[in-house]
Design goal:
single chain; mainly alpha; 7 helices
Length: about 130
């Protein structure tokens, strides 16, 4: 059974995911809300975790943001601690920066140092543009 604290956390995570997606796309709150058929005030409250969304409205927001609803659910799952999928559904290729950010938050210091050293090595191997 889900507690009220769990529900509040889920609303906050959902709001953060939607805000991050909106900001990443460079869209205004008003623009996304209008395309989703909701008021900017409602979207703002959802992004702050104050209001909840129906699944139909969540689908409308995903459409307005130009992403499959499944990606929103995947972002929520990862934010709540799930591992990113090892195999990606057809047509879904996560941003490698997101994958690195996720890994950085979960690696121990020695492993993180190895990852950073390897990244530096790969960068040093690239030929400078001529």
């Amino acid at each position: 059974m889900q507690s009220n604290a769990d529900s509040a956390q889920l609303g906050t995570v959902l709001g953060g995911v939607l805000r991050a997606r909106r900001e990443k796309s460079g869209r205004s709150l008003r623009s996304v809300a209008q395309n989703a058929g909701i008021s900017p005030t409602h979207l703002s409250e959802v992004e702050r975790g104050v209001k909840e969304l129906s699944l139909a409205r969540l689908g409308g927001l995903a459409d307005a943001l130009g992403v499959p609803a499944g990606e929103i659910f995947l972002d929520i799952a990862i934010a709540l601690g799930a591992a990113p999928p090892r195999r990606h559904p057809v047509g879904f290729a996560p941003d490698p920066r997101d994958q690195i950010e996720w890994a950085v938050g979960r690696l121990a210091e020695p492993d993180l140092r190895s990852l950073a050293d390897f990244g530096s090595f790969l960068t040093s191997q690239r030929k400078a543009p001529t």
